[in-house]
């Protein structure tokens, strides 16, 4: 549950920051009589893009620590932050007086840099080597039963350590041998 909440926050914080300019009436205000530096949408953007950058850093650190292979959701999250950052920078730089590098510009650039680093890592980590093909029909019944027992024991141990849910372990135990291989990124 915590991972899902983290994913939602990391995905929607840059979207909220980007749309705060639209909701603030970016196109409807007169440029001469409005102080963009202290506007509410600038404060929202600083907070949301700071959260987005921190979430990306935590995601990258966890990904490196766990030695994970990239999955599509990694790429989608990093890509969403990058796209929202670029669109926000375009909006910011279209405003007069924003090119000097205010706090919003710095935070959005930081989020963009971190998301581009994440995208690069996640893309490079995708393996092009195919999973080895194993002919499971050539196994004897004793070998098959031994492998199934070892897999069930490993899944039970993972569930005991709360690395996976008991329901997931039970479903995986019921699957045929060789069916738990993850998807490969191409």
From TrEMBL:
Native organism: Nocardioides albertanoniae
Protein name, entry field: Uncharacterized protein
Lineage, broadest ranks: Bacteria, Bacillati, Actinomycetota, Actinomycetes, Propionibacteriales
Regions that span the bilayer: 5-23, 43-63, 75-94, 106-125
Keywords: Membrane, Transmembrane, Transmembrane helix
